[in-house]
Thiamine-binding protein domain-containing protein
Amino acid sequence: MAIAEVTVIPIGTGSTSLSSYVADLQKVLEQQPGITFTLTSMSTIIEGSLDDIFSAVRAIHEAPFHSGAQRVSTSLKIDDRRDKAGSSAQKLRSVQEKLGELG
């Protein structure tokens, strides 16, 4: 399973607020099979197979165009570890253990 961090930025929307676009993107992700996702204050984390992640990223990249945006910038970062199973939660637990936050 891969973990991806994606940020979609509609450009030229006439407003500095993008929260309505972000909400629309989350609704699109809810319809995408084979993935789990977590919204953060700066991006969205998507977990799943590479094919499912790429399909989800394509869908959320397209969504702002359907809402009237004429230009969209999407940034994607992928962590694809194949030697053992992992997840975003597992990565956080590992750091927390090293910080002594978990017993």
About this structure: The CA atoms of residues 35 and 78 lie 14 Å apart. The chain has one domain: 2-98.
